[in-house]
Amino acid sequence: MAKIAQVSVLKLAFFVTLSSFVSLSLAQKTLSRHCLENPPTPNSTYGAGLVKDIGGLKAYVSGHTRSRLAILLVSDVYGYQAPHLRYVHFSTPNHREEHAPNPSTLITLLDYVIYCDKFSVVVVDIADKVARAGFYAVVPDFFFGDPYVVNSSRTIPEWLKIHGTDKGFEDAKTVIAALRKEGMHAVGAAGFCWGGKVIVQIANTDFTKATVLLHPSWVTLDDIKAVKVPMSILAAELDNGTPPELLKQFEEALTANKVNNFIKIFPKVKHGWTVRYNETDIPTVKAANEAHKDLLDWLSKYLRKY
Ligand SMILES: *[C@@H]1O[C@H](CO)[C@@H](O)[C@H](O)[C@H]1NC(C)=O
Ligand SMILES: *[C@@H]1O[C@H](CO)[C@@H](O)[C@H](O)[C@H]1NC(C)=O
Ligand SMILES: *[C@@H]1O[C@H](CO)[C@@H](O)[C@H](O)[C@H]1NC(C)=O
């Protein structure tokens, strides 16, 4: 095994100034042109966790129920078997595989690290990262075994007719209710792309304590005006569906409604990058890690009170 050094993530200047953009009307109906890029290969056995039934949905779960704090992760159209949404991934420019460092030494919230040496960057992917931070991570199969498959005979609009975000919203409430019944004191929720639209609806209920949208799709200003719980939006600079000028409006609306918010635009990355980053593109991998840390920091801030 290669020697793995521990290097603190540089606080890169990820914040892009939001200003002076002319408003785009109804750009929010657009699906990002990057939405279907770099599709994952679904893998049913990937990850440190296991798949169980929660409220009638299959869900990948990771971490301990005894933490009493759950984080619901709502996938993009590629569903809950996407490896980057689940487990440790080792990104190396030369595709070298390593074993995971001992989980107990890996991630703490206060001292977030990526493990890297000259040749490799190790990324612990989202659900297991959440679990290692002490939460019970839950990634449900909102598509009931039927995620979108690129280049299949079905187009995205056809697929969306069956797998609409409104249905996802209803199912997400069912899952959260089941988690509460299992003894969870509080639930935070984050959604990616398709899942972002689900989460923005959850955010105007009292089902969760805090929410995160990651490069969300189809979210409108009206959706945002209805949000009641703290919300972070982690967005890509390159996203024609949810562009920076729309995010500025989101931020103003949340602030005007006195909803705690944290909006961040990651420069030079494309919509989808937090789950569908190019594994050999190290700056993008680092930006994905930064977003995962922001997700955890935001939800922890609100969940740790319970
Ligand atoms: C799925 O993940 C397992 C590890 O859990 C791995 O051994 C297997 O090769 C993966 N399958 C595919 C198709 O990537
Ligand atoms: C889907 O088809 C397009 C056009 O034929 C091609 O460029 C792309 O690589 C294909 N994607 C996958 C994942 O097969
Ligand atoms: C991934 O990133 C590498 C390095 O930046 C680049 O050479 C490669 O073309 C990228 N692959 C895709 C599929 O974009």
Structural summary, described in words:
It is a single chain. It is built from nine helices and twelve strands. The chain is of the alpha/beta class. The chain has one domain (5-303): Alpha/Beta hydrolase fold, catalytic domain (Rossmann fold), CATH 3.40.50.1820. The strands form two sheets. It has an eight-stranded mixed β-sheet with strand order 2-3-8-4-9-10-11-12, with helices on both faces. A four-stranded antiparallel β-sheet has the order 1-6-7-5. Helix 4 crosses helix 5. The chain is globular. Residues 1-28 and 88-121 have low confidence and may be disordered. One 2-acetamido-2-deoxy-beta-D-glucopyranose binds next to loops. Residues 39, 150-151 line the site of one 2-acetamido-2-deoxy-beta-D-glucopyranose.
What separation lies between the terminal Cα atoms? 40 Å
CATH architectural category: 3-Layer(aba) Sandwich
Gross morphology: globular
From the alpha carbons, calculate the radius of gyration and give it in angstroms. Answer: 18 Å
Bound small molecules, which ones? Answer: 2-acetamido-2-deoxy-beta-D-glucopyranose
Poorly predicted ranges: 1-28, 88-121
Number of helices: 9
State the major sheet. 8 strands, mixed
Give the overall average pLDDT. 80
How many strand segments? Answer: 12
Number of domains: 1
Structural class: alpha/beta
Strand content is: 15-25%
Q: Find the CATH superfamily.
A: Alpha/Beta hydrolase fold, catalytic domain
In N-to-C order, the SSE pattern is EEEEHEEEHEHHEHEHEHEHH
Domain Dienelactone hydrolase: 124-302
Keywords: Signal
Pfam families: DLH
GO molecular function, one term: hydrolase activity
